[in-house]
Amino acid sequence: MIKANVIASIAIAAVLGATAARAADPVAGKAKYETTCVACHGANGISIAPIYPNVAGQKDEYLVAQMQAFRDGTRQNAIMAPMAKGLTDTDIANIAAFVSTLKPQ
Asked: 3-state DSSP: the chain helix, strand, coil percent, rounded to 5?
């Protein structure tokens, strides 16, 4: 019985997570990306310098996790921490939804 409850809880969390990701707004994400991220990661998600990673085509779940980690301080980076600090969960989901649509080169 406990195993079934755990499996059901995991399935519900996966569905809710997928629903939240689909609810993200890539148009709003593009606007936020252009004011927050483009200077380093480039207009098309291809970085302008070798010290910055390309983000084009990354999976939105991965992008959300990384931006939240920078914002919350669980992933340390002197450049990204202040950039992510002011982002809301909605901002992060929207940026991730936009960036995940960009084509890697």
From this structure: 65, 0, 35
